Amino acid sequence: NHKKISFSSSFGRKVELPNEYLDYLRDFEFISLRDGQFVNYLDDLGLKNVFYVLDPTMMIDENYWYKFASKKIDEKHYLLYYRLHHNDTLEQEAVKFAKEHKLKLIRISNSIDHVFLSGKTFSNIDPAMFLSLIKNADCVLSDSFHCTVFSILFRKKFITICPGETSPRITDLLNRYNLNSRYAINIGDFCLNSIFDDIDYVRVF
């Protein structure tokens, strides 16, 4: 019998909500989503007071994140590569790209076999190290929503490869800031050299 709200919730991917879930959601006074494409979806299901808002990480002053990303990074001039979804083609292109541009390949991964791959792999890192690796990178290649968020906050050159069914919140984010040229659906349809294209972050912010 208490007032219920959701703040910056996320679907992640399109799902069919069971009636039981809808009954629970109708009991909410206010629902906000960081997936803009799903606002109309909930509205069509009869849910009211549904709004599109920023991810919470983007509602904090960026100076906070600069201070938080304080871990010392010894590596210089590197491509940060972080993927959540298995993609052999993306892996090969990341290795090739780093070699062609004389960049060290730094990988974030908790897969034990990745320590044997080209480049240097960081695993089981804390949030401060995660952010520090993004902040100090020359450029960033990822399929991760939050890696994309912090690439923007740290004003990095980046490319995001959208991971299929979980891509809506990434495309919503990039379209919101007119950065839709920074993502691709398939790495094979994209020239990674465009990662070096300038981004007008004055306009973005």
Strand order of the largest sheet: 6-5-4-7-8-9
**Strand element count:** 9
**Class inferred from helices and paired strands:** alpha/beta
Report Rg. Answer: 19 Å
Q: How helix-rich are the residues, as a percent range? A: 25-40%
SS summary, helix count: 8
Strand percent estimate: 15-25%
> How would you sum up the major sheet?
6 strands, parallel
- Written as H for each helix and E for each strand, in order along the chain, the element string is EHEHEHEHEEHEHEHEH
What integer is the average pLDDT? 87
Using the alpha-carbon principal axes, give the shape: elongated
Low-confidence stretches: none
Distance between the termini: 41 Å
Q: How would you characterize this protein structure?
A:
- The protein is an alpha/beta fold.
- The chain has helices at 19-25, 39-44, 62-68, 88-100, 127-135, 145-153, 168-176, 201-204, and strands spanning 5-9, 30-33, 50-52, 78-82, 104-108, 120-122, 139-142, 157-161, 183-184.
- The longest helix is centred in the middle third of the chain and has 13 residues, at 88-100.
Fold topology:
Layout (H helix, E strand, L loop, with lengths): L4 E5 L9 H7 L4 E4 L5 H6 L5 E3 L9 H7 L9 E5 L5 H13 L3 E5 L11 E3 L4 H9 L3 E4 L2 H9 L3 E5 L6 H9 L6 E2 L16 H4 L1
Parallel strand pairs: 1-2, 2-3, 4-5, 4-7, 5-6, 7-8, 8-9
